[in-house]
Amino acid sequence: MTAASDELVRLHAENGVATVTLNQPERRNSLSMALLEALSEVLEQIAGDGNVRVVVLAAAGKVFCAGHDLREMRKQFDSHDFQLRLFRQCSKVMQQIVNLPKPVIARVAGVATAAGCQLVASCDLAVAEKGARFATPGVNIGLFCSTPMVALSRNVSRKHAMEMLLTGELIDAARAEQIGLINRAVEPEALDETVYGMATTIAAKSGHTLKIGKEAFYKQLEMPLAHAYDYTANVMAENMQANDAREGISAFLDKRDPDWQHK
């Protein structure tokens, strides 16, 4: 599964890992309507591909993603309908990432600002090079980062999220790791090794189990404690009926490698 290099979003899959690359470096990979629609289509394609177990979200060029395309937005200043469609399309893509039945790892090189920072926060895991920078700078241009706030506030504490949203200032990768926006900040030469090492480790697991776990993780977060335990008890009981759970437990007890069937 490979998309052409002139696509807005490139797609390459190998050994259970799909790499999705934002491919508009000359536009700082800004999230225009066209790019958002292309990204949505690729995510939908991946969702139905049983050979893909992990997704890496990357970007071409020196900027991961500069957020929305402000030039496109300015051309549509007087169209409330366009602005609403744009933000709804962006929200759809972010929810597709969260609801995708495969873990998504952000590979961040360069700057991720506004909706680009939202993109990082929406991924399940994120690894950035130490030179990466992050911000939600909408407040600086009179457009508060309200939709990026949804993903940001679900990944870092309230005060850290509010500091980013109210000041609009850039933070470095070390700070992003400290507050939980990313998992790791690594040297640039170690970025791919770290990202794909993580992806390979995850891809070696049962795809069915990963799907169950990711879905349950996000659902239980929104529940009161007692409801979360009741829900996850049912999830685990159901999970026990899966072929891969029976195979995994048997393989562990028999001291052998499991033979996943991904079901």
From TrEMBL:
Keyword Isomerase (UniProt): yes
Entry-linked InterPro entries: ClpP/crotonase-like_dom_sf, Enoyl-CoA_hydra/iso, Enoyl-CoA_hydra_C, Mitochondrial_ECH-domain
Record keywords, A-Z: Fatty acid metabolism, Isomerase, Lipid metabolism, Transit peptide
Keyword Cell wall biogenesis/degradation attributed: no
CDD domains in alphabetical order: crotonase-like
Gene3D superfamilies attached to this UniProt entry: 2-enoyl-CoA Hydratase, Chain A, domain 1, Lyase 2-enoyl-coa Hydratase, Chain A, domain 2
Molecular-function GO terms, alphabetical: hydro-lyase activity; isomerase activity
GO biological process per UniProt: fatty acid metabolic process
Protein function: May play a role in fatty acid biosynthesis and insulin sensitivity.
Family, as annotated: Belongs to the enoyl-CoA hydratase/isomerase family.
Name under which the protein is recorded: Enoyl-CoA hydratase domain-containing protein 3, mitochondrial
Organism expressing this protein natively: Marinobacter nauticus (strain ATCC 700491 / DSM 11845 / VT8)
